[in-house]
Amino acid sequence: MKLDAIPPNIALSAADTQQIANGLQFTVDASDNLGLKEVLLTYSDPTIGQTDTIFNTTVTSFNKSIKISFPANSGSGGNITITGRATDGAGNFTQATTVVVLKNVQALTVELLAPTAPAVASTGKNIQVQVHAQQLGGLQALGFIIVPRSAVVDPTTPPSDSVVFTPPARQPPDTTYTDTLTVQAGFTSFTVTAFAVDAAGRRVLSNPVTVQVQTPGNDVTAPAVSHTISSRVEVNDNITVHATDPSGIYWIGFRVDTAATPPATGLVLVKFDSADVSAGNLTTVDQTFALQLPLVDNQLPKSVVVRGYACDLATARNCAYSQTSTVITGSAPRRAPLRAAAAGAGQDTVTVVAGTTHPLPFGGHIADAIYNSNRRELYLTNDVLGRVEVYDLATNTFDPNGIITAGPVPWGIALWPVDTAGTYDVNRVVVADAGGTELSILDASTRRLLWRQALPNFLIEKYSIQVVSQFTRAVITVHDVSDRPQYLGTVCRVTTGSPTGACASDSIYAIYSTTPTASSTSPFNGRATLRMEKLTPTTNPDSLFGHLFWELGDLGSNVAGDTLRIEMVRPSLGVSKVVLTACRAITIDFPSFGLGDQTFVRNTGNFTHAFVGEGGNVSTAFARVMGYSAKKLLNTPASSCTMTPTSILEPPPGITGSDDQDFGMSPGRHVSDFISNTGVHVVSIATNFNGLTNLVRAGTDSTYYLDEGLRLWGTSSVGSTTPGMDMNYNHKFEPGGSCSVTCGGGSGNLGERIVFAAAPDTSIRAFDTYFFNQQKKIAIRDPIIGPLRVALDASTSQQYLFGITARGLVVVSLPPITNINPQAPPRR
To answer: Which of 121, 132, 583, 627 is most buried, taking the most CB atoms under 10 A from its CB?
Structure first.
């Protein structure tokens, strides 16, 4: 009998980088000439159980697609090694492995901060090891591995190469461990590797760093110095200086110069800084310095020359500037390596740009933002981590605790109106929770939830009458759509007769779009709606009010379409009523009534208007925009009609009915007029202080300027992929109209007739909103890829621009803009 000596074949295939939200996906393909007995899959992540497939019949080939899903808030991520082992009936086996980078902001990460390559050490001298690890679920241990271990000794008492956090002690989500080791004689090199273990037992390693051991001798040679810096830096950016010398490092630092102002020539010192590190007796020192350049935003951009600097511990005290350098170019995504340019000669010219960037405390994604001048705080909704980040302008820091009571998926955010002069409540903030069916009203001073505004369920219904064999019946087709809020703005209706425009306490409203779901019935699957809700903590149904804006889809009288009927249900209160009866004879086109799945909402600075732009995937060929005015009539008449000529009652007996209509919403003809004049896909919107100028950013490269009636007045080209924009806080102009005093009216200050738009070339472009031309270009370090907001800091009268980049929040002090346009357009 001939024995089977041929091992099976096995192959694993997978995308090298995958998002954890989509699961870990790969394909296994195994085969054998006679028959497979087992295919075993194991994973480097201990939280993923092995998959074992055993064959009881003759199977010569096996192909299967695997998808492993992870629960919300999973800490899995990073490099996941998948090992497949195929065994045949004779016991022959073959193994295959593949590594997938599973992207997860909550994954365990570890990095070796020191030493960094190239690293040197000397016998009898010290070397510092520093390890940093993060895992939101908590860290169990972190430390380092030395190979060979006898190359160093640890003088600390007791000696340790790691720190362990054992419950009930707190297991921190973010920590750094530092130790100093003494190099022993008889070794030419050793390696250092960082490791970390999270609370679930997952273990990760850093890349090893090789340390070369040197002998000091009679040292008359200056240290080897290099530095790393970005090609575009902010005034508080970092420079990392690396210095090595067998005698040890005494001083380490950097120098920044700039060209002298003509007619003078040469370089002028801007900053020199150094640190005494002699106490460490270290042969390799890596020191990161904040540049802290004495420059302000309105002096930038400016070119400067940067060099590293170090002196050794030798008797001769040898010193040197950088001999080599690395300049980082480009803007990398968070947690991704930056792109390095070719090595420099140690003296680099870099550009200092406006703004300071502040990393988010724990990463994540920012959906929306709003500034509260009363508290000098910026609130940013982090939908990935389920928290509202709080940035304090006074201290230029994030509150590490944030606000965690806004709901699991905080999205849109707005302030609480007090009057129509732009005053808002000192502490109250309204947040749309896209993970539920409520709005969260927060107290910013206590970081706590005041109440949750439960949102109603709106049933969108198509109403028709059928006559069959002389019997008449009403046929109602019900569409149950998503009620989860997404973007929102706040408006108010004033107290009658108020000379200050004070908001009536019972007339604070949220205008909000909804987060669509695929489970909604066609044609509303994946489609949003636009709604309004009165904000009040009461649970009395008579004091609550909600409205679905059907007005934007009204086709008008004598136009072919479907008859619309709307029911509003508040399940928790046991309330159900018809809020638009069929008697009202409103006709709409059902397939196009739903909005895009990312419909933006912004309110004006005086809380009298809101502006809405249909973004994301849209059901129509081109996107729509809508305007809303809280100054116009909100009508809620009771319905007493009877359907004729039949005896069908609408609404049916015992059911409350009304024909609610808000005359503040743009009528359908204005909405369609915008489409006719633009034909764009909306990626962001903006509105000014009083609602007279409204802006739409298209997915191509243009900004569209609209008046209150949604008429198009002009466009500006600014580029795509960076959708953020906002106007000067005091902007009260129109994009058209008379030039009898100031073109567009407004305050008369042409420097306020400006919109700031993010550009893909890492700049902010300032455009005149009447003549639509560029007035200024503000250079920043990274492209703004998320929300952009302009706000007035009342305590300093300074306007700031806040924008989200791949590295965090950039804050720019906006300079005064000198508008180059004439007061009136030239005569042609």
So the answer is: 121
- Which pLDDT score, from 0 to 100, does residue 679 have? 66
The reply to whether 224-353 shares the fold of 9-103 is yes
CATH of domain 9-103: 2.60.40.2550
- At 518 the pLDDT is 77
> By the 8 A CB rule, do 393 and 114 touch?
no
702: phi then psi, degrees, rounded to nearest 5: -110, 155
Say which DSSP state 807 is in: T
Closest residue by Cα to residue 477 from 485, 492, 465: 465
| pLDDT given at position 824 | 57
Calpha distance 263→607 (Å, rounded) = 53
CA 333 to chain centre: 11
Q: How many Cα atoms within 13 Å fall on the side-chain side of residue 759?
A: 18
Cα–Cα distances (Å) from 687 to 29, 244, 759, in that order, read 56, 56, 19
Residue 620 is predicted with a pLDDT of: 62
State how far the alpha carbon of 64 is from the alpha carbons of 12, 83, 86, 167, in Å: 10, 15, 13, 41
Listed by start position, the domains of the chain span 9-103, 109-214, 224-353, 366-452
DSSP state of 658: B
Q: Does an H or E element contain 239, and which?
A: strand 238-244
* Domain spanning 109-214, CATH architecture: Sandwich (2.60)
Tokens 């980049």 correspond to 805
E strand or H helix that includes residue 39 = strand 36-43
CATH (residue range 224-353): 2.60.40
C-alpha 527/C-alpha 599 separation (Å) is: 10
Classified as helix, coil or strand, 798 is: strand
* CA distance between the termini of the chain: 103
Phi, psi values for residue 357, rounded to 5°: -105, 135
CA 584 from chain center: how many Å? 43
Helices then strands, each counted (H, E), the chain = 2, 63
Could you tell me where the DSSP H helices lie in 477-553?
none
Q: To the nearest 5 percent, what fractions of the chain are helix, strand and coil?
A: 5, 50, 45
Q: Looking at the domain that runs over 366-452, which CATH code has it been given? A: 2.40.10
401, with CB counted inside 10 A (0-12, 13-18, 19+), is exposed
How many other C-beta atoms can be found within 10 angstroms of the C-beta atom of residue 443?
A: 16
Q: Which amino acid makes up residue 770? A: Y
**What pLDDT is attached to residue 218?**
64
Cis upstream peptide for 294 (omega within 30°): no
What pLDDT was estimated at residue 332? 41
Segments in the chain below pLDDT 50: 332-340, 342, 827-828
In the numeric block, which tokens belong to residue 189? 């090199």
| pTM score of the predicted model | 0.77
User: Cα(783)–Cα(805) distance, rounded to whole angstroms?
Assistant: 6
> Residue 42, Cα to own-chain centre: how many angstroms?
34
